[in-house]
Structures are given as structure tokens and as C-alpha cells.
Amino acid sequence: MAKSEELYNAILEGDAKRAHAATAEALAAGVVPMDLIAGSMVPAMDEVGRLFEAEEYFVPELLLAGRAMKSALELLRPLLAAAGEKMATRVVIGTVKGDLHDIGKNIVGSMLEGSGFEVIDLGTDVSPEKFVAAVEERNPQVICMSALLTVTMPAMKTTIDALTNAGVRTRVKVLIGGAPVTSQYAKEIGADGYSESASGAVGLVRGLIANA
Amino acid sequence: MTGRDRVLAVLNGQASDRLACMPITMMFAADVLGVTYGKYARDHRVMADAQLKTAEVFGLDYVSTISDPAREAADLGANIKWYDDQPPAIMEDEALFADKKLLAGFKAPDPLSGGRMEDRILGVELLRRRTGKDLLVEGWVEGPCAESADLRGINHLMTDFSDDPAFVNDIFEFTVELATRFAAAQIKAGADIIGVGDAAASLVGPRIYNEFVWPWEKKLVDSIHAIGGRVRLHICGNARRIVEPISRLGCEMVDIDFPVPMEQARAQAGPRQTLAGNMDPVRGLRNGSPETILKSLEELQQQAGAQWIVATGCEVVRDTPHDNLHAMVAFAQTHTTLNPAGSTAGPGGIEENS
Lengths: 212, 354
Hints:
The complex is a heterodimer of chains A (about 210) and B (about 350). Chain A has about 210 residues and is of the alpha/beta class.
């Protein structure tokens, strides 16, 4: 598999311009887009996740790496679409209704995207109806919900109930996360999983999809 | 000893009759009074009633005017989203300084200009009047990293450290100047201590913290000391890697949130720094039982040592069983410091002035 060391390093160092240039250079040299994703971007974001877990990287470094990764992906997306290739798994992500906190959700979204998943970010203050509509219209395999406040956590259950009532709950795996959220709460509300970290969320999505 | 005397004794490194207890209550306090949080956050009289009732029912040693991070931002003109029964939030998509150029020449309002900052100042004044010297009265300001995140948008600020360091210093200077004036007004109104909330600082690592955040937090702490105040620094989240520089700020009291092991916090902060915390408010206090809470606090005390104030790592969550908070306070009421530090002045060197 073709690998661009320059792209890998640019993402790791959070340099969006370099990542963009390295991607353009690799494409010009005939490297296939999916090979760049699998050979450089996914390993780079895996390493970013590892450094974050090891407390060598922090939120600024994570956001910069995510930005660099996205600058590379911008070049690849039209090519992937033209070739009829799709990202393996589609994930819908959002912060639940009543909650405007988005940094944790953004980090998880970036990590997922950099790990080869197609991520549809619904933003913050996302109503249950909007999650349901996203499932019906975009057909994701996974929904990730975030909440930072104990007062907004119940919206996770409301959303799961709404998915059930709309008859689409069995079509998606539902993962939850956020500072006050626990694995116990995930079980209580009928979610499929909980992670306390962004890289943990990536592993969880991979595991759920592999076992689906 | 009164609650105020007790806390001040701990902060001054003097002997106290028992452990002091200062968990943060906001939505929990509103529920104790039976009012919506929207009313609590908008009206200092409601907040004062709720704080006093909570302190009385549970036997807390202090009352506080902390409510939400949007007081300064609201007065500056940021777009705030209000909720009926939860804290107001700042609309990041419409951040005041989304365009960095707007910072230059921006004039911050007087804290006493009839807005949300004045409401907190009036809250301090009312709490002081109603508690006399029985309870410690806490004012609150946002720290430079948190307030800048509120005004710039946290996602933007986190990348500004790399993209535009000069702007970061400019916005930190702006926020520290505002926080100093806000703190001064609260001290004048009777605040015994000023809480400085700088949650966003836990998102950065030691390199960025030391280069950007620490110098401005230090300036704010020194400024509050210069006008006769004490400082309680509250950084929510995992600040494990920055506890050591935090302990060099000279704060009288440093809150430790639950993701930071108390043992590590104490090792980094040294024996003289007063630490508060750090029971997990959800997994420990809300989901626990009086028995598990007692056991956790015994372990925490062993790790925290003498200069310690009993508290949760962050806000007591609103559906915490009352018996559980009673159990936390009962622990404080029935335990004394492990190794009384004697009568030497505490780390901030500020003597009791009652």
C-alpha cells in the first residue's frame, strides 16, 4: 500500500498546508486516494489518538491534526465520489438537545473521520427528531451522541426512544459519551456503547461494525 | 468556629475545629429552594435564598455566587442562549470575537453597569449582609483561558495558540483586565474569596499552559491579592499535567477535579498548598451511598494530607440524593485535619482579617 510519509508527518504535526500539499503531490504521483487514507491518514490519526491517551498531545494538538487531516480529505473526497468509492462506515454525530458544548464531539468526529469513517456532524443542540431524520435520510450505521451536562443527559434517552418509536433503532448502533456519562447510564438507556475518550470511541465503532 | 472562621483557618494553615466543607452547588441549590435555574441565574436574590437554604440544610461552610460562565460575556454583548431550567450558554457559532479584528479597541463595560456582572456583585453584597461573618462568601470571575474561549469560541482559541500567538496574548490581557475589575467590585461588596474558573485551561498541555495561560493567571491572582482578595482556582477536567505550575500561582485554594488523582495533585502541589476536592460528583457522590462516600473521603483525606477542604471535583449534580451530600458534610463535621499545620500563614500568606 502506498504511503506518504510527508502526509503522515504533516497530520501528526498539525500542519494543514503541508498536509494539503503532500496529498496533491501524492495524487500527482499516481497514488490512489483510498491508499492515502488507509496508508497515511488512518495511521496518523491512530498515532494522534495514542499520543492523546498518553497525555503527550492535548486538545489543541488534536484539533490541529484534525484540521490537517480534513485539508487532505478535501482533495480526496471528489476523487472518491467520482470513482464511486465510499467510506466504509457512516457515522452521524451530534451534541444532544439543550447542550451547546461541542469540543468533545468535534474531537471524536475528527478522530473517526481520520480513521476512515464518513462522519456527518449534526452540530449541537440536536433534537431527537433531527437524529431520527438523519438516520432515515442518510442511513448511517452508527450514531454518536455527546452531552456535557447532567441536565442534558436525559436527551440521550429521549433520542433513543425516538429512534425506537420511528422504527429505525435496529438500523443503527448508538454510542454515547461526555463528562457526566457512564457505562452504567449507557446500559440504563439502552445505548450500544459508551466511551470516556475519543480514541476509545474509535475502537468502539470499529468493534461494533466488525461484530455487526 | 463559624464556617467562615473554619475555612479561613484552613487557608491560613491554622488549626480548625474540624474539616471545612465547600462543594460547589448551583443547580442543586436551585432545586433545594424549589426554583428553576433560569430564575437562579438571572436574579441574585433567588440565588442568595438558594445558597443560604442549601448551606443551612446541609451545614456547608460557605455560600457562593458562581452560576454560569456567561456573566462577563453577556455584558460584553455576546449572544447568550437562555434556558428555563439549566445554565445559560454562550453561542459559539456567534462568538463575539469570531472576527479577531474586533478585539482591538473593544471597550469592556463597567461591571457596575446594570448587567449580569452587577447582578453577581449584588449577590455578594446580599449574601455578606445576610450571613454576617457566619459563612464564607465567595465571588466568582472567569479566568483568562475560559473567558477567552467564551468570547472567541473554544474551538478557535485552541488553534489560535498555534496560528496567532500574539492574538492569544491580546485576548488574555483583555480578559484579565476585565476579571480584575469584576473581582475588585465583588471584594468591595464583601467577598471573602474570589473563585477563578478557568476550565478551558485543562484542555491544553504543559507547554501551552506554561507559555500562554500561566503568566496571565498569575497576573490575575496577583491583581486580586493586591486589592485584598483571596483566590480559589477552579479548573474543571483533567489538569493532571499542570498541577505543579498551578501550585506556583500563589492561590489560597486550588480545586482539584476528579480526573486528577488526589495523590498526584498533592505530590505536585507540595504540602502547603490548600487543595479542595475531588470526589467524582456523578460516580462518587450522586451514584454512591453514604457508606461508599465515607470510604472515599477517608481515602481522599489520606491522599490530600493536612491542607485539604472537603469538596466534589466539580458541581454537585442536581439529582444527587440528599442523604449523600449529608454524608459528605457529616464526614467533614466528624474529622479533623490529619496533621495540623500549626499557626503559620498559608501559601498565600494572607492572614485572617475578620
